[in-house]
Amino acid sequence: MAEPGVTDAEKILKAESGGREPDKAWQRWLIVLIAVAWSLFQVYASDTGSLDPQKVGSIHLAFGFALAFLAYPGKSGPLNRIPWTDWLLAIGGIVTSLYIFVDYYNLIAVQGGVPIERDVWMGTALLIILCIAAARIVGYALPTIAGLIILYGAMGPAGIIPMTPPDVLYLHNGYSWNEIIQQLYITAEGIWGTPIQVSATFVFLFVLFGALLDKAGAGQYFVDLAYSALGTYRGGPAKAAVVASLLTGVISGSSTANVVTTGTFTIPLMKRVGYPAVKAGATECAASVNGQLMPPVMGAAAFIMASFLNIPY
Fold it and tell me: What is the torsional sign of CA 271, 275, 280, 283?
């Protein structure tokens, strides 16, 4: 029988990768096929390099929306079926994302990046769906911060909200909703900017590479290697936990997955040799969070920083 800690860890890992398992076989296969199609598209796009970055970003986000609402249940959503609201959100996210891909020439060449009424409606819908997806997967902090920034952009004498911000924040006259949508949805400086471009190129491929290695058994191999090298030394279990997390970070861009992969072995082992439970957990947590910075995956943040600083990877 598995230890309670192991069971809890498996639940955490399952939730991070999408906790929904529909009862209907065709829905399970649909989620798998979407994930496989996304992987194949990203390999193709990176190999050819013929697609405009903004088009790649729109398709990338469309796949992300599909999995965000089909594989990840809401806070109180069912795990064994996909409710109609999630189908609606997934379709809405796909349509508003692919709109950029389908109408790209007209948006850039004909309209010169100036949105018409239809573009504004599409952009507004995408922003709302994007906030819902972010809240569902990473929590409410990120969409709340983004919402406050958009609200600040709308404030000012010439903005949607004719309220003048405090002097310390009053740096502009305010923007109309059309201007906000133009910046965030039409240009390559908003949603389709550096973060999603980095995600659609470097990050996705390295995470895919790491996932394939992990499924091939590399993760368990790294854990066993750390144990065999350091297990007999003083404080060996803790040292093995650090090295195992470091090596697991080579193939995993997720600190949570790192904790779950190595912690199910290292934490009980540290406790058995006398480490207090709190110190055992803290050691594994710190090691796994730092393991996220190991190349080549390094998490998304390292790639984004490199792009902003114009430093070649």
Answer: negative
